[in-house]
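Allow me, if you will, to draw on your knowledge of protein folds for a short while. The matter concerns a single protein, recorded as an amino acid sequence and a row of backbone structure tokens. Could you please explain, in whatever detail you think fit, how the structure tokens follow from the sequence? I remain grateful for any guidance, and I place the record below:

…
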Amino acid sequence: MSNTTSSSRSTFVLLSVVAVIFAVLFITNYLSRNVSESDEKNRTATATSATAPSATAPSGDANSTATLPSSNGGVLDTQSLKGKAFLEQKNYEAAIGEFSRLASEQPQSAVMHYNLGVAYLQKGDTEKGIAAFEKALSIDPNFAESYFSLGVGYDQLKQTDKAIAAFLKHSQLAPRDRRTWLRLGTLYDTQKQYAESIAAYNKAVEIDPKYAVAWYNMGNAYLHQKQVDAAMTAYQKAIDADPTYPKPYVNLANCWQQKGDNAMAQKLLQKALSLDPSLQSKVSKKP
């Protein structure tokens, strides 16, 4: 009887370990893509949304939405408030109409063309948005935020080389803007330039050591280079930066599973599931 019980327990433990391995590998494959600023907007609330730049160009502070670029003296842009309100209401046609009027009335105002580009980009008319950002830059070549938004537009069109060029220009004008380094990292990842992506993510976390998304993406880049220990360090940094962020737990669990520590893998996976119960459905759908 005792032998039967011992055998049953051994079988249960073995099946539990196998289940953990399948769960970790399946969810990790599901989470293997890198995340951008827009994917983690709730975790990066201090930064302007990457897919929807805010109306009115920031001047120095990447979080500002109320000042004009330096070429306009940093004066409060009260003229753009109506269009900005339309954008907040997702009334894109009205916003485009308002910013088009202002750009026509002030053809040499870089900020008005920039705001028009923002409206087009938020509407989903990316090519017109790019044209407006290019116009803004022809008026003010040092308009940093316009380069960032231009990069977003080119990224949406999958024109990676142009997107990288725009973000690099933005990084020269605004080197302390963490968003740009995250964007550059993800773009380099798509081209499998992992050394460059890791360097970009390092820039991002130098600016903000609590930038969990950048640490997470860095871990993924290290894994692509088969540098498991470096990846584990990056995932742990992501967890330390934001303990409520489930994705690093999953990928760190995968690393521990690769090292043969299934107990640690199970512990981390359970933590991830406690933070995001929706991951359970991914486990239940495993092949």
